[in-house]
Structures are given as structure tokens and as C-alpha cells.
Specification:
Elements lengths: L7 E3 L7 E2 L11 E3 L1 H12 L4 H8 L3 H20 L4 E3 L4 E3 L11 H9 L7 E9 L2 E2 L8 E8 L2 E9 L6 H9 L4 E3 L6 H7 L3 E3 L6 H9 L33
Parallel strand pairs: 1-5, 3-4, 6-10, 10-11
Antiparallel strand pairs: 2-4, 6-7, 6-8, 8-9
Helix pairs in contact: 1-3, 2-3, 4-5, 5-6
């Protein structure tokens, strides 16, 4: 029997999921770079980590990182040399919520330590993109979340938490570190895939008072848009990419 694949820890879900050539070949079959392949390129080529350091960050063996990285570089070469579209999706990964010892000074680790305590099986934690009492309308640019703990259909506590300047895909990791079960927001783009990978339920297309929206969700009466998209230039959306990775619930 072959050994099951070990999920690769990804600290930052990509902000942009699709790239297309400008010469009319955008309809060609795309090169598909998996999220864990993207992470090796980000850590090694962008952050300057060694393969050994990368392996510790991703929670896998150095030989595994070598294989992932080599595959990623080969795909990027085809994307650049052949002028093909590039799409980022899939892979065997899980989003990091600051739980790893390797996270070091990452602020998500502080959030994980603070919010990792058991909520109780009957507690649901709702996060809302937040600004001055209202639902902030662009998920990827929110500076704060307001968290609501709900028990038996009633809000029992709430608090406002800063995002430390994180944006887009990184915010899903922040929500994971905050132990959130659901997100209420206005517009949202490609980060839907990151939320799905983190197991966070999305209630988008909502506006108005954050408190009222959270109360409505707690009561099972929130009016939201299940097909929400964000037209803001900072958001990117790709149909069909949400949550399709190979780790399942066992990671």
C-alpha cells in the first residue's frame, strides 16, 4: 500500500489565480500550477528561503519540497516560453492558521494561541468584515473583523480584531487563526477558494449594520448572495477553483 500524501502547509493563498497572454492565446489550455507548488516558488524565489527552510515551513520533507519545486519551475517555464495561460488551483495543502512552531513571529501565531481554546461544540464563531459599525464591502482590503460567538441562536460575546494589514488570500489564514466558522462580507473575489480550503462558510453580498447581520445569521434569517463576486480591481475570481484540493478533512 502506498503511503498517503501529507498535506503541505501553505501560509499565503495566492491573491491572483489566473494569468493570460495578451496576444490572443488566452483560450489555449492553461498550465495549472497547484497551490502547494505556488507556495514553494513564493518561499524560495520570493522570500529567499533555502529548500530546507521551505520544507520546515510547509511541514514536509526536503526531498518532497525538491520535487514540488522542480515541478513548479517546469510549469512556469512552459507558461513563460510557450506563452500559455496560467491557472493556480488544487494540490495537497492546508492553510496555515499560525499553529506551526515554524511560524515564529507571524502575528497569526499569536491569534492562534489566543483563539485556539475550545469554543464548545455548540458555539459558532462568526466573523464580519468591519468598519465603523458597518460591513466593509471589499473583503481583500478589510482592516478589521468583528467576531461574534453564538450559542443557541444568540450572540453571547463580540470583539473587534485587526487584520494587521493582511489582504486577499492571507485573510483566510487570519480567519483560521481566529477559529472562525463563518464569514459575512460584501464583495469577495478569488479569496473564496481560500475560505473554502479553510472550511469557513461564506455569506457574501451583505451590507449595512455588522451587528444586525450577525444577529440575523445567528437566527438563521440572513439575506445573502450565494453567487457573490467583487468587481473591485483588487479582487480576482476564478470559477471552479474553490476548495478543490486533495487533503480532505484529515489534515
Amino acid at each position: 500500500m502506498s503511503r498517503p500524501k501529507k498535506c503541505r502547509r501553505v501560509c499565503h493563498f495566492p491573491d491572483t489565480l489566473e494569468f493570460a497572454p495578451a496576444d490572443g492565446r488566452s483560450q489555449a489550455p492553461p498550465v495549472v500550477l497547484t497551490v502547494d507548488e505556488y507556495e514553494t516558488v513564493r518561499l524560495i524565489d520570493r522570500e529567499g528561503l533555502s529548500q530546507e527552510q521551505c520544507s520546515r515551513r510547509m511541514g514536509v520533507a526536503r526531498t518532497t519540497v525538491q520535487q514540488i519545486y522542480a515541478g513548479a519551475r517546469e510549469k512556469l517555464a512552459r507558461f513563460l516560453v510557450d506563452g500559455l495561460p496560467l491557472r493556480i488551483e488544487g494540490g495537497d495543502f492546508r492553510l496555515c492558521g499560525g499553529e506551526g512552531q515554524e511560524c515564529g513571529g507571524c502575528f497569526k501565531r499569536r491569534y492562534h494561541q489566543q483563539y485556539a481554546r475550545a469554543k464548545g461544540e455548540h458555539i459558532m464563531r462568526i466573523a464580519v468584515t468591519y468598519e465603523d459599525g458597518q460591513i466593509f464591502q471589499h473583503f481583500g482590503h478589510t482592516q478589521q473583523f468583528k467576531l461574534y460567538d453564538v450559542e443557541e441562536g444568540k450572540i453571547v460575546s463580540s470583539q473587534v480584531v485587526d487584520t494587521n494589514g493582511s489582504g486577499h488570500g492571507a485573510l483566510a489564514g487570519v480567519l483560521g487563526a481566529l477559529n472562525a466558522d463563518a464569514l459575512i462580507c460584501g464583495g469577495i473575489g478569488g479569496a473564496q477558494a481560500a475560505l473554502a480550503a479553510a472550511g469557513i462558510r461564506l455569506y457574501g453580498g451583505v451590507s449595512g449594520s455588522a451587528d444586525q447581520a450577525a444577529q440575523a445569521l445567528a437566527a438563521g434569517a440572513l439575506d445573502y448572495d450565494p453567487q457573490v463576486k467583487c468587481s473591485h480591481h483588487g479582487e480576482h475570481h476564478h470559477e471552479g477553483s474553490c476548495g478543490h484540493h486533495g487533503c480532505g478533512g484529515g489534515c
